[in-house]
Amino acid sequence: MYETRSDYFDISFTFISAGIVLGLLIAIPVILKKNPDLEDPKFEEKYGSLTDGLRTSGISVGFIKKTIVWFLIRRLLTGLIMVLLVHVTIWVQLAANLSLTLLDTCFTYHMNVYKEEMSFYMAMFNDAIVLFLSYFPFLFTDFILDLETRYYAGWIYIAIVALMIVVNVIVVSRDTVLTMAEEARRKSGELHNYPLVKKRGLIDTNIKP
After folding, report:
1. Hey, which of 38, 77, 149, 207 has its CA 20 to 30 A from 49?
2. 54 and 111 in a common domain
3. CA–CA dist 74, 68 (Å, integer)
């Protein structure tokens, strides 16, 4: 089954990655169980990256836990499908990956735990694109024998991937610009109010480090 060094490297790396993911699957629910208040400043300071971009108010911890756990399981199953099924009939691997992608899209739409509406729209856009592209590998098998058809399918695949990348870059750039503008306005307001605050004696300029 595994004949080359590359095969052994792939399977070894897969099991190492799987071990890390399984460790996180055990640790994260424990962390969330011990910290039910997701808006607690101590929790945000220590574990804020777990809920970055997700809603922490008006939503149960269970929803957040399910979202994070599924995120990890999704990646774990993708790796196992790509590596462990590489020597199985290609249809089995492609069908398993397609089913997993469909399940992930449905899960994202159902849970919707994103803090910003745009984040949810982008998640659905990306999931829909990935789901659509999951059909394309079937076109590069013996299902399509015409090489010209495969050629055009390949270029369509590339164009769709390029579209997804461009849209994501635009959205990320937009968010970055808005964040920088907001930060600039905040600092500008602080500098503008500094003389007034100093005049009222609210800042002791004589304090030495």
Report:
1. 77
2. yes
3. 10
